[in-house]
Amino acid sequence: MTTRVGVVTFPGSLDDRDAQRAVRLAGAEPVALWHRDKDLHQVDAVVLPGGFSYGDYLRCGAISRFSPVMDTIIEQAKLGMPVLGICNGFQVLCESHLLPGALTRNDSLHFICRDQKLRIENANTAWTRDYSAGQEIVVPLKNGEGRFVADQHVLDELEAEGRVVARYLDLNPNGSYRDIAGITNAAGNVVGLMPHPEHAVEPLTGPTTEGLGFFTSVLKQLVNA
Amino acid sequence: MSLDTVKNAEQTPDAAQPWAELGLKEDEYARIREILGRRPTGAELAMYSVMWSEHCSYKSSKVHLKQFGEKAPASDAMLVGIGENAGVVDVGQGYAVTFKVESHNHPSYIEPYQGAATGIGGIVRDILAMGARPVAVMDPLRFGAADHPDTRRVLPGIVAGIGGYGNCLGLPNIGGEVVFDSCYQGNPLVNALCVGVMKHEDIHLAQASGAGNKVILYGARTGGDGIGGVSVLASETFDATGPAKRPAVQVGDPFQEKLLIECTLEIFAEKLVLGIQDLGGAGLSCATSELASAGSGGMRVELDTVPLRDSSLSPEEILMSESQERMCAIVEPGKVDRFLEICEKWDVIATVIGEVTEGERLEIFWHGEQVVDVPPRTVAHDGPVYNRPYARPSWQDALQADAPTAERLLRPATGEALKEALLQVAGSPNQASKAWITDQYDRYVIGNTVLATPEDSGMVRIDEETNLGVSVATDGNGRYAKLDPYAGAQLALAEAYRNVAAGGAKPLAVSDCLNFGSPEDPDVMWQFAEATRGLADACLVLGTPVTGGNVSLYNQTGDVAIHPTPVVAVLGVIDDVTRRTPIGFAEEGQHLYLLGDTADELGGSAWSQVVHGHLGGLPPKVDLERERLLGEILIAASRDGMIDAAHDLSDGGLAQALVESCLKGGNGARIVVPAELDPFVFLFSESAGRAVVSVPRSEELRFNDMCGARGLPATRIGVVDGDVLEVQGQFTVSLAELKDAHTGVIEALLA
């Protein structure tokens, strides 16, 4: 049976088709999910893609978090379903309180699009098992509000529990606290990531193919589960 | 204020009307009265004033633009030509591509962020209205002097507006230009280009036919923004003492536009529309009159059904509003319900505002009373046509005589001086890296970007199975055009053509944005006449028809016009995007070849501008047959794997191309000056029809044979090697030093 990975489209989602492509290239079946539809159509995992859902109005991710589809995703995530939020998807996960902290305006005050070096800190999550801890990868980063912030004790807790999934290397592009590019929940099934691994899955269009690991990881996780 | 109905207009023939304030000339107002056989109502006057504006009617440029049709080369690729929202080109495998470049100059000076943002929004809707999914955007930009205080206001706002709108829309920004010159100080140029892809059968046109069919307005509500944008703003010279024109700039909402795109594409997929038009300049006046004019029959519109953001708007204001993110569709009655359902799915407001009628009139009602009764063609197409006087400027000869000869401008004579000049040019605002700007644009979204800035052209894959792709480059050198507008326009085309070919794509078609000063100045009108003649002649030779574009006049403040700036976009097709050629020297050991002939041509050059602040003489010689041959060689070499890198030579000459290709590829190069050439001319001449290519050793024989057989001069000038750029016997400069000079320049100026 093919693994089914849902990709949610909110109004204003932009990288939904890219995430579907990455899922397909990883060997799974992408399933388009619609924000108004509570039904997850028997998917095994969910990707919340990048973009500007609801135009980033109010706060990034603040309106999408109340979509009917999110009710089910929040419920399933708490039961252990793998969920990956990329960029705007990360923002939605924070607004949903599935992940701690918040993403605020880049410290440069500019949108930035660049090829970003990361270090995978935690290779035990549902989405990073195909990497090794300490592995360095380059994937595109593109955001205007990607600065990860949280209280000191939350940051300490994330560090202590090994819940920092990826960190920026060489250059911190947005002023994220402790160079944090991605985090996970305590169970390791929900991951939020500011950079875009779905844009690094083909040599033709990406700086590398080093983003594919996020999508193959979840396949392995599901097959072994 | 009482409603000015048609009946009222008939009864009060002598009522005073604000035609002059709306930008109409006295004879134009008289002509409207003649057409209608009475004075126009306020609403009719509003419609005519915006549709007969320079921006919408092309009244000064029309007589020259018709050459693009008359001299158009025979092309099997053209599916839809000039006159529609955008031209459509066949790229094979059942795909069609539409593209167009447009200006949003005046609004962007007044209100940089919104002006630039809505420039993107407008061109994207043009492409969408043809039936295509927009797949990429590009922005050719011109600013005043880089170190002028006002550039610090205008540039960041424009860049943020382009990024803010385009990024939120989900379209990769894959290229464009950034040029600084004090001639653009009070008149920055913000041109925007969009490319869209569709299947042949999906082409849609702007026409309303079939009595009883419904007129549906959908998208954003109509507000009071952008009233008079095309007439008051874009069709007059800026005047330092006039009233503030900021309210004439529209305000964009990219989120609404993204919904509009997805909603419209779903409507197309279900074949629910007969005709469609976006609302841009001149808003509803334009959409209703153009749709009705292009179809058979008339149209009746109930203007009071238009959803408003501001309930106090008058009928005149609703007709003139340029509120963004709106479209107008003609739909059969049986398909209206499904149409509205799809709009509801995407949270897009849609309203039936009228229907196609048996008659031949465009009739508009306001709460049951008729406020417009006009033949739509007279509004949309029968605007005034001017044969503006033009004459070669008295100063042109003196300008051309002031050639940058070795006697007039001191040339670097030593290796050290050459190195100094190279660093100076590479680090000047026009030649420096534009990464600070382009890194604010998303180039990855949609996942099909194969080449993007700083490559020679932007290239996107359009079919993931077959790897079919298209590429676009835009170019335009105002300095060349100032020296000789005929040659300048041809050089703009030649450069864009060369850039597309250098990436490995075959050039197919052209779109142009012609940015000039006031048409009421005979000098400017001569520049315009010469540039259009040059471009039309060159398109004929290169076999690339003009598919559409835009004219922006009145780019001047007081008496001072911008350099004539024809911006030319060339679209190319490539059968297999995996064969594309990038600019970076990525492989050590490969030999570098200079293709084409180098002559002592420095008129209008980057060197003369950067080092001497000089503009004079003649631009480089145009040889279109050579451009075509060079293009064919570059495309064949790319397809057959004979070259691994190619970079066209343009401003800054070979020196600048080497700097860019070394830095992009992360490798140095050892260069030998050919015996017959002066080192300075070799490095800095801007002779056209040239490129530098990197050839794998295994392909050298085959590549040389091909160039020899076709008669293209190919000179081996060096090898990719190490981490320095060395011009043997002259100087050595490290990549670190080059990078230092070439990057960080723009941000330092704006800091």
From TrEMBL, chain A:
Pfam families: GATase_5. Pathway: Purine metabolism; IMP biosynthesis via de novo pathway; 5-amino-1-(5-phospho-D-ribosyl)imidazole from N(2)-formyl-N(1)-(5-phospho-D-ribosyl)glycinamide: step 1/2. Keywords: ATP-binding, Cytoplasm, Glutamine amidotransferase, Hydrolase, Ligase, Nucleotide-binding, Purine biosynthesis. The keyword Ligase applies. PROSITE patterns: GATASE_TYPE_1. GO terms for molecular function: ATP binding; glutaminase activity; phosphoribosylformylglycinamidine synthase activity. InterPro entries: Class_I_gatase-like, PRibForGlyAmidine_synth_PurQ. Transmembrane segments: none annotated. It is found in: Cytoplasm. The active site is at residues 87, 196, 198. One of its GO terms (cellular component) is cytoplasm. One of its GO terms (biological process) is 'de novo' IMP biosynthetic process. Gene3D superfamilies: 3.40.50.880. Signal peptide: none annotated. It catalyses: N(2)-formyl-N(1)-(5-phospho-beta-D-ribosyl)glycinamide + L-glutamine + ATP + H2O = 2-formamido-N(1)-(5-O-phospho-beta-D-ribosyl)acetamidine + L-glutamate + ADP + phosphate + H(+); L-glutamine + H2O = L-glutamate + NH4(+). Its EC number is 6.3.5.3, 3.5.1.2. Part of the FGAM synthase complex composed of 1 PurL, 1 PurQ and 2 PurS subunits. NCBIfam families: FGAM_synth_I, PRK03619.1. Part of the phosphoribosylformylglycinamidine synthase complex involved in the purines biosynthetic pathway. Catalyzes the ATP-dependent conversion of formylglycinamide ribonucleotide (FGAR) and glutamine to yield formylglycinamidine ribonucleotide (FGAM) and glutamate. The FGAM synthase complex is composed of three subunits. PurQ produces an ammonia molecule by converting glutamine to glutamate. PurL transfers the ammonia molecule to FGAR to form FGAM in an ATP-dependent manner. This is Phosphoribosylformylglycinamidine synthase subunit PurQ.
TrEMBL record, chain B:
InterPro entries: PRibForGlyAmidine_synth_PurL, PurL_linker, PurM-like_C_dom, PurM-like_C_sf, PurM-like_N, PurM-like_N_sf. The keyword rRNA processing does not apply. Its EC number is 6.3.5.3. HAMAP family: PurL_2 (MF_00420). Residues 211-366, 587-723 form the PurM-like C-terminal domain. It is an enzyme of class 6 (ligase). Gene3D superfamilies: PurM-like C-terminal domain (3.90.650.10), PurM-like, N-terminal domain (3.30.1330.10). Pathway: Purine metabolism; IMP biosynthesis via de novo pathway; 5-amino-1-(5-phospho-D-ribosyl)imidazole from N(2)-formyl-N(1)-(5-phospho-D-ribosyl)glycinamide: step 1/2. Its main location: cytoplasm. It is found in: Cytoplasm. One of its GO terms (molecular function) is phosphoribosylformylglycinamidine synthase activity. It catalyses: N(2)-formyl-N(1)-(5-phospho-beta-D-ribosyl)glycinamide + L-glutamine + ATP + H2O = 2-formamido-N(1)-(5-O-phospho-beta-D-ribosyl)acetamidine + L-glutamate + ADP + phosphate + H(+). This is Phosphoribosylformylglycinamidine synthase subunit PurL. Keywords: ATP-binding, Cytoplasm, Ligase, Magnesium, Metal-binding, Nucleotide-binding, Purine biosynthesis. The active site is at residues 55, 104. It comes from the Bacteria. Belongs to the FGAMS family. Residues 20-59 form the Phosphoribosylformylglycinamidine synthase linker domain. GO terms for biological process: 'de novo' IMP biosynthetic process. ATP binds at residues 58, 100, 512, 549.
